[in-house]
Amino acid sequence: MQPILPGAPWLIAHKSMLGINHPYKVTLNAQDYVLWQNSSGEVFALNNICPHMQAPLSNGWICEQRNTIACPFHAVEFDGSGRLWREGQLSRAPLANPLELIIDGDLIWTYGGFEPRLPVPELHRQVASEYEFLGVTAQRSIQSDFLSSLMINYDHDHQNGTHREFFKVKSCQSKFVTKEGIYAKVSQTAEKDDYTAEEITANPMLGAIPEVMQNFLEYVFPSTQFFCLVSPDVQTYQGHILYPETETTTKTFIVLYAKFSDRALKSVMQESLLNMASIVVQQDVECLESLYPRQNAKIHLPNEEIMFYAEDLYQHWNSMLTL
């Protein structure tokens, strides 16, 4: 396949997703890789194809003493640089191809082997320094092309349909606060109906959402959308992450951060927040996977300027300034 947005930095995982000494498979631009994290928190990545007889290394295991990954077919071992371990020593040159990673705090980025055209966004570092990490949720491979998956994150009208029952939104207005190249900040005012006592019991976070929500969103094209919900009890920073697996599939997950007005609220709301974010993604996925092939729109809605901004960045990627 033709690589999608070559030179973009892709956030492919949070360290918590890898565990310790467990192979973790990632597909980026139709190439499979295997990642693993050792007990010291170091992360390594190789092309997932064993250079012996092409078995998937991600089906193998990690040899903790040598910090190597063993092929599931013949137990051939490679270190994080791709060098072969045999008879007590490493080969001079790598035989398995390593993937260059950028580790920024607990986040794992890569350019997928391409020359960098954009820096790794500082916004993630800022959020992680100011908010408490609650967890990762909504890991999904969406049966949808990257552009369609991207645009739903910039779509400020679909809550009226896709999320109608869950969020009970009656009206929504959005506008740019800042738009500087690949970075944008958007303010959103949404009015909703009340939740029932039963709905709040099932999902306690719903009780913290005010009737009129003054939210804002921060975007760093192409991988990141942060949704910030502000309420008297909690302020969340919900990072929606995307990267292209293949021409027709897109990987998504959410990295969730929050501040609580009272520390005791964390135990009440943490699982509810993660669950709520997962439901939103599930509803978006169901929408995306049901779409017919793209055609020119014959109808336009009030908040679509933000969506067209993202589409324009995508379509003009090759003409954008590089680092």
Automatic annotation (TrEMBL):
UniProt entry keywords in alphabetical sequence: 2Fe-2S, Iron, Iron-sulfur, Metal-binding
Domain of life: Bacteria
Pfam family, one: Rieske
Chain ranges of the Rieske domain: 10-110
Cited InterPro entries: Cholesterol_7-desaturase (IPR050584), Rieske_2Fe-2S (IPR017941), Rieske_2Fe-2S_sf (IPR036922)
Molecular function per GO: 2 iron, 2 sulfur cluster binding; metal ion binding; monooxygenase activity; oxidoreductase activity, acting on paired donors, with incorporation or reduction of molecular oxygen
Official protein name in the record: Rieske (2Fe-2S) protein
